[in-house]
Design a protein that fits this description.
homodimer, globular, 11 strands, Rossmann fold, seven-stranded mixed beta sheet, 26% strand, two-stranded parallel ribbon, 6 helices, alpha/beta
């Protein structure tokens, strides 16, 4: 069973959706560690309540790159816990080096837009203000850029005429909760390969 | 009845889908003129066969901006035909001035990607090579940029594991044939307004 660490800065709704998927048999891995940069984050409290180990490197910054020291501390915690896959789930900080090197190709992120459209912060508001009629969410492998890595799964969400940024973001979040477990299931449970920057899954055979 | 001109450089499959929509009552306008930059284009021959007036300004260029003289000739033809709306339908040349000024806010284009992702040429291949799992097509109003104008309608198309650029482009084209008439129907037949760069349609009331 592959061991998964989840990074979260906020309330941790994607973390919960991954946990629920694991418990209902919908994720072929085991979430063993929750890491964060805010001791008071809802995700940390939720992990503790669920008996999942937590590791926090407190930071006053709420966005931007991790310092080398912070990222090295996270890396060491993941190495000590023998982590196979890292899921960024509303982790607001940008990785720069140590984690990317130690877990190359095994770090996954979820982004609330159909990348490569609307990368970076406030993606839902970016899409709304642009006047997109479709937006959505993307699970992708993390590379050294911001939201630039190879795409695993995407799902579209329609922008409705009476939407606000908040109502749109709510529906995108629902879609995130569906595709993050789906992406992990595919990455960990199916055969796939990289072709250039494409991730190509082997066509699924129908079960007899 | 609002008078529509269609611009096409190629075989004109989107032109045909607009014509078919008009004839089946699915477009609240009347296509009266087909304009192009290639005398031998399939779209021109089709228009003639259907008894629709054509206007061609032959050019050896296959892409890039129109010259001022070329664009002025197209503008004058549209003005003479008392055109209300212009639909670019696989017209490979970029407008720069005279048409945009004369028909400001009344020129529509269709693009084979979910803008703002993958603007410009070969959008289907761009999306395929990027490894997008969802792409699609966009109908938008034309402004002075390349594929940057306000969005009217978008539809998503899934990239399948066994797709090639050609099979993907075929499915996107099918979606184009559905949304271009839909976009015209909404623009010409519904109430809408601009808010910033958003096009917001008035919510449709259920018919009694």
């Amino acid at each position: 069973m592959q061991r998964i660490a989840v990074f979260a800065s906020g309330r941790g709704s994607n973390f919960r959706s991954l946990l629920e998927a694991e418990r209902s048999g919908g994720c072929p891995g085991h979430i063993v560690l929750l890491l964060g940069d805010k001791a008071g984050a809802g995700a940390v409290a939720y992990a503790r309540g669920q008996g999942i180990e937590t590791f926090v490197v407190p930071s006053k910054k709420t966005k931007g790159r991790l310092s080398l020291e912070e990222e090295s501390a996270f890396r060491d915690a993941c190495l000590a816990a023998k982590i196979d896959w890292i899921c960024l789930a509303g982790f607001m900080r940008i990785l720069r080096g140590p984690l990317l090197e130690a877990f190359q190709g095994r770090i996954v992120n979820i982004h609330p837009a159909l990348l490569p459209a609307f990368p970076g912060l406030d993606a839902q508001k970016q899409a709304f203000d642009y006047g997109a009629k479709l937006t959505g969410c993307t699970v992708h492998l993390v590379d050294a850029g911001v939201d630039t890595g190879p795409i695993v799964v995407q799902r579209s969400v329609e922008v409705l005429e009476n939407d606000t940024v908040a109502t749109l973001a709510d529906r995108i979040l629902e879609a995130e909760h569906a595709i993050y477990p789906e992406a992990l299931r595919r990455l960990l449970g199916e055969k796939w390969e990289r072709r250039g920057r494409r991730i190509v899954f082997q066509p699924r055979k129908d079960k007899p």
